[in-house]
Amino acid sequence: MIKLEGIVKTYPGSTEPAVKGIDVEVPDGELVTLLGPSGCGKTTTLRCIAGLETPDRGRIQIGDRTVFSSDERIKVRTNQRNVGMVFQSYAIWPHMTVFENVAYPLTVGRIDKTELRERVHNALTLVGLGDLPDRPAPNLSGGQQQRVALARALVSEPEILLFDEPLSNLDAQLRESMRQEIREVQQRLGIAALYVTHDQTEALAISDKVIVMSDGEILDIGSPQRIYEEPSSHFVAQFIGLANIFDLSDVTSGVDGLMSGRCDIGAIRFPEDPGALESDEASLVVRLEDVALEPAGGADDDNRWAGQIISALFLGTLWDCFVDIDGARVRAHVPRTAQPKAGDAVTVSIRPEHCLTLLH
Description:
alpha+beta; five-stranded antiparallel β-sheet; 22 strands; 35% strand; elongated
């Protein structure tokens, strides 16, 4: 278990904290992702847990042990926190074999050779490198180097795992397979893991819970599905996935559980939200895959508008389309079988239940 309470960290020479009083809890068996743009404080948070940075104030707990507390003047040294950490740079020693790289953390302690060999063998087997202990490090592929780094983090039998952008140096296909392997290893061990990334797809795929950060603060916490389908703010909606965001005006309530209003593309109906009546700056969020493009005609019905395709880019699994509706642009992801073309007249359709209200 990892628990952070009121962590604040300001770097020397800066007047603005890199981390501004954040609270985080990761139960045993869960993988939680810190997601956000560069400079948002996610890596600083991770380094504070590992003991590589000292917070200005707050409290950090690993398992049932407090490893940092500004009030109680507790600061446990990094090598005594029982943390396994995998960095963005694999930090593989080029003059060592796979076995020697993985065994290195055990050589600084008192452990007999038989146990050392057994633990290294177990760690390598866990990450699928059990048959490569004698391979020189320079002869490893990028994916194999990442597995060595993971095995080295596991060999000390840590209480928690910390990952700092571990897949950013891999190509897209290898990233996909490695994130699945990391997830499977973490689940097999049943320990708490905190994972830092700026890649939204990675965060959604690998996490039990996603924490979205910006400017040293937590903006949203929830399951990947909840964060994607019900973002708490404009920033979260735009950072997690792709979305159309429409400003709302002239909002009125209805009698069928739907409200009416006007937005960039015209009159629109959406699920009832009393706050939208009271706010002067309400918006609607519509994910790209929830925008349907249909043959032209029938645009007078609710949530249907006449439009013309401006561009259609083929992305393999889908078409990425921009559509003009009376001077306003809507973006849509449509199935690859649709065969849209620039210049096509279409009807844009959005089901009311796919409109999410955001209040400023």
